[in-house]
Design goal:
This protein is an alpha+beta fold. It is built from five helices and six strands, in the order βββααβββααα.
């Protein structure tokens, strides 16, 4: 049996060659002891013995959920952040955001006093909002998943940008449970 470790920016992957089968494992799977118990202890010991010095930034947009009723319906997305970057005040965060809050962040960053090339958001999908459609429009599963993927790409590009990391809007978006516009003032964060 041969064990090989590959260290990368976002995860640690191990490959197990056993009886000609190849299994790809993430660091979380390794640490959760979800595979071959004989080797788990040795692998965990090896992972813990090699401290990572690379900064990590990982953001997932998950669990889209339709909320509200009638014309007040919207999709709520869970935004999960894990990071070791010192610019962020917390190492982990889970917040709920809707598309309009992603639009708010996009607008704030475009109007910021920096030279950030803000990536586009997924389309607003005006045609899906027309009345008398024969489908669910904005609330079709395939559209929601496509938008979720686009929002995840958007927030990861923004959060990885060094200039955007200093904008208060990004910190409010990623860490505050609710975006309170009555208390928000556009500015840089205090380091």
């Amino acid at each position: 049996m041969f064990i090989h470790f590959s260290f990368s920016f976002f995860n640690i992957i191990s490959y197990h060659f056993h009886n000609t089968s190849i299994k790809k494992r993430t660091k979380d799977e390794i640490l959760s002891h979800s595979f071959t118990p004989i080797f788990d202890k040795h692998i965990v010991d090896m992972l813990n013995a090699v401290p990572s010095t690379e900064a990590v930034l990982q953001i997932e947009v998950t669990s889209p959920k339709i909320c509200g009723a009638g014309s007040k319906r919207y999709v709520d997305y869970t935004v999960k952040l894990k990071t070791t970057l010192p610019v962020f005040k917390q190492h982990e965060s889970v917040v709920h955001r809707r598309y309009s809050e992603f639009e708010w962040l996009h607008k704030e960053l475009e109007q910021a006093d920096t030279k950030i090339a803000v990536p586009p958001l997924p389309d607003k999908a005006w045609q899906r909002q027309l009345p008398f459609r024969k489908d669910s429009g904005l609330f079709q599963d395939d559209f929601i998943e496509e938008r979720r993927q686009g929002l995840e790409v958007f927030i990861n590009k923004i959060a990885a940008h060094p200039l955007a990391q200093n904008e208060r809007a990004l910190h409010v978006f990623l860490f505050d449970p609710e975006i309170d516009l009555t208390k928000y003032v556009r500015s840089k964060i205090n380091k």
